[in-house]
Design goal:
By secondary structure, this protein is mainly alpha-helical. It has a domain of 150 residues: Up-down Bundle (Butyryl-CoA Dehydrogenase, subunit A, domain 3), CATH 1.20.140.70. Helices cover 65% and strands 4% of the residues. It contains 25 helices and 5 strands. It has a 3-stranded mixed beta sheet, with helices on both faces. The chain has a two-stranded antiparallel ribbon with strand order 1-2. A hairpin with a 4-residue loop joins strand 4 and strand 5. Helix 1 packs parallel to helix 3. The longest helix has 39 residues. The protein is globular. It starts with 24 loop residues before the first helix and ends with a helix. InterPro entries: M3B_PepF_2 (IPR034006), OligopepF_N_dom (IPR013647), OligoPept_F_C (IPR042088), Pept_M3A_M3B_dom (IPR001567), Pept_M3B_clade3 (IPR011977), Peptidase_M32_Taq (IPR001333). It comes from Candidatus Thermofonsia Clade 3 bacterium. Its cofactor is Zn(2+).
Length: 608
C-alpha cells in the first residue's frame, strides 16, 4: 500500500465557521448562552407548573404551554448539539488535547440538565396523553411535533420518578459515561511498534488495523494481526472494567424503568417492533451459508486449505492493487453522485471544498469513521482514516450519505425535535450512496480480475454487516444476560466473542485464528445510553438495498420521494416510512429479497 504522502495532502476538518477556536470568546459566549437558556427553560417549566402530577389545565392552555416549551427546547438543543459537536471534533481527532477534554467535561452537566428537563416534560406529556389528539389538531408547534409528542407520551411509561431520573442523569457523568470515555481514551492512545520496509514505526491502532485488513502483503497482514492481539492483551483489564461499568449501569436502569429485557429500549429507540427484528435476523441467519461459500472461495484463492484466518478476512483479492489519491477518490465520488442527483453532487462538492472531512491517520485520533451534524451552521463533519484503499473510498461515500441525510433535514426546515432519527433509518442514505459508488466501480472494471477485486471490497463490507453484526448482536445479548448476575472477566468476554464468531462465520473462517478482542475497540458496546448498536446497521444495509432496487426500477422519479423520506425520518416509525414505498418490514420476504441481491454478487465472485 502506498505511504500516506503518496495519497496527496489529506485534509483535517475546518471548524472555523462554527467557532474560531476552543478557548475563543465566541465559544465561551455560546456556552454561557446555552447555560442561560437552560435556566430560562427550567424557570418556564416551574412557572407553567409542568410536572407529572400537575393539575390538569384546559386544552387551550395546554397547547399554549406546549408550544412555548417546544420553541424553547428546539433552540436549546440546536445550540447544545452544535457546541458538543465542535468540542468533540477536537477530542475524537486528538485525545491528547487536554483543553478539549476539559471543555467536554464542563459542558456535559448541561447535557444532564437537558435530560432532566426531558424526563420532567416526558412525565407531564404522558399524564396529558389523552388530550394530545385534540391539542395537535390545531395548527402550531404542537401540531408540527405531533409524532414527537406521541412518542414522548408512550415512552413516559418507562421512566422512574423525577427524583430518580434526575439522580441517574447526574451520576452518569461519573458512571457509565466515564467508563465510555475511558474506552475511547485507551483505544485512541494505544500505539504499537511495527517493523515494515526495513524500519520500525510506532503506529496508532487505527493504522495497524488498516494494515492488518488491507495490506497486499500477507506477511504484513499476519504480523499486524499478531501485533494487534498482543497489544489488546496489555489493556484488556481496564477495557473489561469499562464494559462491565456500562452494561451494569444500563441493566440496573432498565430494570428500574420497567423494561422487559435489554432489547426492549433498543427496539423502541430504533422505532421497530420485535416482529420486524425477528423477520430480519431470521432471514440473515438463513443466508449464512452463502456468505460462508464466499469466504471459502476467498480462502481457496489465497491458498488456505480450510477457512480464512482473521488477517485475511478483509485481504485484497484480484488485480486492483492501485491506491486512490485523495483527489482521485474525490473525483470518483463526485462523478457518480452526479448520476444519481445533482443535489447529492452539490452536497458532496461542498463537503470537499469546505473541508468537512478529517481524513489523516494520526496518534490520538479514534479509529473508524463517522459523520456528525452541526445544526446551527446546517453542515456536517466527517471523520475517516484514509489509506487510499477502495474500501476507504466506499467509506467516504457512505459518510457523505449521512451528510446528505442531514442536508435534506436542514433544507426541509425541520427542528431539532423533528429530526431525532433512529439508527435503523440513519443508515438509509449512507448505504444508498455507498451502493451508487460500488455499482459505478463494477461498471468501470476493465477486466474480470479487476471486477473480482471490486466485488471483494463490496462483499467484505456486506459480510461484516450481516455475519459479523450478528456475532456482535449475540455477544451483546449474552453479555447483558451474564452481567445481570455478575461481572464478566476479560477472558470471559474473549471466550464469548470467539463463541459467536464460530457460530456465525462457521467453516468460512479458520477457528485457530479468530479475533477474541473485537469487543475492545468497537465503541458501540460502550455507548452508555444506546445499547445494541449493531442490528440497526444490518437494517440500514438491507433497507437501503431494497430502496436502491426500487430506484433502479423507477429512475429519476424515485429521487424526490427518497429525499422527502430522508427529511422526515424523525417524524414516523420505520414501518410507516417504509410503507410509502410498498415495503412490509415484518415480511421476511422483503429482507430475503435484499439478501438475494448480495447472493447474486457472491455467485459472480465465486464464478470469477
Amino acid at each position: 500500500m502506498a505511504a500516506a504522502h503518496d495519497l496527496g495532502p489529506l485534509p483535517h476538518w475546518d471548524l472555523s465557521n462554527v467557532f474560531p477556536a476552543l478557548e475563543s470568546d465566541e465559544l465561551n459566549a455560546a456556552i454561557a448562552r446555552c447555560d442561560n437558556m437552560l435556566g430560562e427553560l427550567e424557570g418556564y417549566l416551574d412557572a407553567q407548573g409542568i410536572a407529572k402530577d400537575a393539575p390538569r389545565a384546559e386544552d387551550d392552555t395546554l397547547r399554549t404551554t406546549l408550544d412555548g416549551y417546544l420553541e424553547r427546547m428546539n433552540d436549546l438543543v440546536a445550540l447544545y448539539h452544535t457546541i458538543g459537536s465542535y468540542i468533540r471534533a477536537f477530542v475524537t481527532t486528538d485525545s491528547f488535547n487536554q483543553t478539549a477534554r476539559r471543555m467536554l467535561s464542563e459542558i456535559e452537566p448541561m447535557g444532564v440538565r437537558l435530560r432532566q428537563i426531558d424526563v420532567r416534560v416526558g412525565g407531564w406529556v404522558g399524564a396529558i396523553a389523552d388530550a394530545l389528539p385534540r391539542i395537535t389538531a390545531q395548527p402550531g408547534p404542537a401540531q408540527a411535533h405531533a409524532f414527537y409528542l406521541r412518542e414522548t407520551a408512550e415512552q413516559s411509561r418507562y421512566l422512574m420518578s423525577d427524583a430518580e431520573e434526575s439522580l441517574a442523569a447526574e451520576l452518569s457523568l461519573s458512571g457509565a459515561n466515564a467508563w465510555s470515555k475511558l474506552q475511547g481514551t485507551i483505544t485512541s492512545q494505544l500505539t504499537v511498534d511495527f517493523a515494515r520496509d526495513g524500519k520500525v514505526e510506532k503506529l496508532p491502532m487505527p493504522a495497524l488495523i488498516n494494515l492488518m485488513q488491507h495490506d497486499p502483503d500477507p506477511d504484513v497482514r499476519r504480523r499486524a494481526y499478531e501485533a494487534e492481539i498482543a497489544a489488546w492483551e496489555t489493556v484488556k483489564e481496564p477495557l473489561a472494567a469499562a464494559m462491565n461499568g456500562v452494561k451494569g449501569a444500563t441493566s440496573t436502569l432498565d430494570r428500574r424503568r420497567g423494561r422487559r429485557d435489554p432489547l426492549h429500549a433498543a427496539l423502541d429507540h430504533a422505532r421497530i417492533d420485535r416482529e420486524t427484528l425477528d423477520a430480519m435476523m431470521g432471514a440473515m441467519q438463513e443466508a449464512f451459508p452463502m456468505f460462508r461459500r464466499y469466504l471459502r472461495a476467498k480462502a481457496k484463492r489465497l491458498g488456505h486449505a480450510g477457512g480464512l484466518p482473521w488477517w485475511d478476512l478483509m485481504a485484497p483479492v484480484g488485480r486492483r492493487e492501485r491506491t486512490y489519491t485523495w483527489d482521485e477518490a474525490r473525483a470518483f465520488i463526485l462523478e457518480h453522485f452526479a448520476g444519481f442527483s445533482p443535489r447529492l453532487e452539490r452536497l458532496a462538492q461542498r463537503a470537499f471544498d469546505s473541508c468537512w472531512i478529517d481524513a489523516e491517520q494520526r496518534p490520538g485520533k479514534r479509529a473508524g469513521a463517522f459523520c456528525m451534524g452541526v445544526p446551527l451552521v446546517k453542515e456536517s463533519r466527517i471523520l475517516c482514516n484514509y489509506d487510499g484503499s477502495l474500501d476507504q473510498v466506499f467509506t467516504i461515500a457512505h459518510e457523505l450519505g449521512h451528510a446528505f441525510h442531514n442536508e435534506c433535514i436542514y433544507a426541509a426546515g425541520k427542528t431539532a425535535l423533528q429530526s431525532i432519527t433512529p439508527m435503523t433509518l440513519a443508515e438509509t442514505a449512507s448505504i444508498l450512496c455507498e451502493t451508487i459508488v460500488t455499482d459505478a466501480a463494477l461498471a468501470e472494471a476493465q477486466s474480470a480480475d479487476e471486477e473480482l477485486a471490486i466485488l471483494e471490497t463490496d462483499l467484505i463490507g456486506k459480510t461484516q454487516v450481516i455475519v459479523d453484526i450478528t456475532s456482535r448482536y449475540l455477544f451483546e445479548l449474552e453479555v447483558f444476560r451474564r452481567r445481570a448476575k455478575a461481572e464478566l472477566s476479560a477472558d470471559e468476554l474473549c471466550e464469548l466473542m470467539l463463541r459467536y464468531q464460530k457460530e456465525t462465520y462457521g467453516d468460512g473462517l479458520d477457528e485457530r485464528y479468530l479475533h477474541k478482542f473485537m469487543w475492545t475497540w468497537k465503541p458501540h458496546y460502550y455507548f452508555a445510553g444506546l445499547s445494541f448498536y449493531n442490528f440497526p446497521y444490518a437494517f440500514g444495509l438491507l433497507f437501503g438495498l431494497g430502496l436502491y432496487a426500487i430506484y433502479k426500477q423507477r429512475g429519476e422519479a424515485f429521487v424526490p420521494e427518497y429525499e422527502a423520506l430522508l427529511a422526515s425520518t424523525g417524524e414516523d416509525t420505520a414501518a410507516n416510512l417504509a410503507a410509502r414505498f410498498g415495503i412490509d418490514l415484518r415480511d421476511r420476504a422483503f429482507w430475503k429479497h435484499s439478501l438475494d441481491l448480495i447472493g447474486e454478487r457472491i455467485e459472480r465472485y465465486v464464478s470469477l
